[in-house]
Design the sequence.
């Protein structure tokens, strides 16, 4: 399976399923042909070979694009659309609760999922404070989720929301009869305590009692004694996300019933999450990152056999959909035959959405370093072109020199010396053909791959021509 060729490069050594499993990064400026060129070519090959896949959407026209791909390559029956106005749903809490690991395993699965989506849309602030805010948010989520699991077999997001919304904020509030009567958080803990008191002590009830004691210690202790400012910040981190999930379209899509799961892609389905970021903004981003993260974890649980079907994650405008665990997923994706394809215009897009500055650059390099094949289309961004040129590498070249001096008599001299120069100058990337009638529909793209060099160049890079009319 892994050695099946997908693309027979004209420069030698094909792009195989193995290469696809090592991940792909496509970068190119507006109108460079990254979608209609290398993107369309890869989509064609993945669909023709029967890959299942998850497609995230940034623009409104991406749904129609993938519908046309599936129709053209005989995969219309495999298309599943989850989004505004669709009849497909994914109750992520039921899904996580039905996982084989029980007790605290479920609690932390759900808390980690919520935290990942929340953090993906939050400003990290000062690095020195990041660990503190992360730990505080994690504690809040774990205890709220565990309280739901103690009191009900069917956990619902609205219950998590109400627990956090009505958690005690002061000693006076905790002592108030009105608060005790109205607080969903307090009533849930009281319900759990009464239920446990009705049953004889067993190993199971002792375990449940310990969990309840930990929850009570948190809400009546750690949470209560946080400073008002700190508690308010952590609450707003949650509610900024939670308010979007309590409203449609996210509430209906992800909190009601389940008709599609990430595992459907293993069976060959093409799932499109049609909540375009540029239309739905943060709501669209949250819903798509939620599904993306759960899908990535589902792929990591796969039991791979020799003929296991590869799956793909396709993300155009990928910088909008980054989260803290992308790097970890990509470092092992090859083992699970999960073929990542990220498309974006330039490096600054990534670094800005990955935290900005030096931090954003390190996160980009860590992720890009785990994407084995990179396509560089025409680009006018200096940083991106310098990154591409540095990746291709440098070599010693002889440079001629000449000089003259004027004194009592004129003298001229010539010489040469070796200099370490880019194999492809950064400025050359801005000059590549971008397709269309003017260029005979030819798109020029520099491909860099890890592993076996191209036969034509004896190096790990080559200039390829992709004709839009022949895809």
Sequence:
């Amino acid at each position: 399976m892994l050695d099946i060729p997908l693309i027979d490069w004209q420069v030698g050594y094909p792009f195989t399923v193995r290469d696809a499993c090592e991940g792909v990064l496509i970068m190119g400026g507006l109108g460079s042909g990254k979608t209609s060129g290398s993107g369309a070519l890869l989509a064609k090959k993945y669909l023709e070979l029967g890959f299942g896949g998850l497609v995230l959407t940034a623009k409104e026209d991406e749904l129609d694009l993938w519908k046309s791909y599936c129709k053209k390559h005989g995969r219309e029956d495999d298309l599943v659309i989850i989004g505004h106005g669709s009849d497909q749903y994914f109750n992520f809490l039921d899904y996580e609760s039905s996982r084989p690991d029980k007790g605290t395993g479920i609690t932390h699965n759900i808390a980690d999922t919520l935290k990942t989506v929340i953090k993906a849309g939050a400003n990290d602030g000062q690095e020195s404070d990041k660990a503190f805010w992360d730990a505080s948010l994690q504690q809040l989520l774990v205890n709220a989720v565990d309280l739901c699991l103690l009191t009900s077999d069917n956990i619902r997001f609205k219950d998590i929301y109400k627990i956090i919304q009505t958690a005690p904020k002061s000693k006076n509030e905790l002592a108030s009869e009105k608060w005790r009567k109205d607080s969903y958080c307090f009533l849930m803990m009281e319900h759990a305590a009464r239920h446990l008191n009705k049953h004889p002590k067993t190993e199971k009830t002792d375990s449940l009692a310990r969990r309840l004691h930990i929850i009570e210690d948190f809400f009546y202790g750690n949470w209560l004694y946080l400073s008002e400012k700190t508690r308010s910040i952590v609450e707003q981190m949650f509610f900024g996300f939670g308010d979007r999930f309590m409203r449609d379209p996210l509430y209906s899509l992800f909190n009601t019933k389940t008709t599609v799961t990430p595992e459907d892609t293993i069976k060959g389905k093409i799932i499109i999450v049609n909540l375009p970021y540029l239309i739905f903004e943060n709501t669209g981003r949250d819903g798509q990152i939620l599904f993306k993260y759960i899908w990535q974890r589902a792929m990591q649980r796969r039991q791979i056999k020799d003929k296991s079907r590869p799956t793909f994650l396709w993300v155009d405008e990928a910088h909008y959909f980054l989260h803290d665990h992308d790097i970890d997923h990509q470092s092992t994706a090859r083992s699970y035959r999960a073929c990542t394809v990220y498309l974006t215009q330039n490096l600054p897009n990534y670094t800005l959405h990955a935290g900005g500055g030096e931090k954003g650059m390190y996160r980009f390099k860590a992720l890009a370093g785990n994407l084995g094949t990179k396509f560089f289309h025409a680009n006018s961004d200096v940083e991106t072109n310098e990154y591409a040129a540095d990746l291709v590498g440098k070599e010693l070249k002889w440079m001629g020199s000449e000089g003259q001096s004027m004194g009592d008599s004129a003298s001229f001299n010539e010489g040469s010396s070796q200099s370490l120069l880019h194999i492809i100058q950064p400025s050359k990337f801005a000059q590549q053909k971008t397709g269309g009638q003017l260029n005979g529909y030819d798109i020029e793209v520099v491909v860099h791959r890890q592993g076996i060099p191209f036969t034509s160049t004896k190096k790990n890079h080559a200039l390829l021509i992709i004709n839009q009319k022949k895809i």
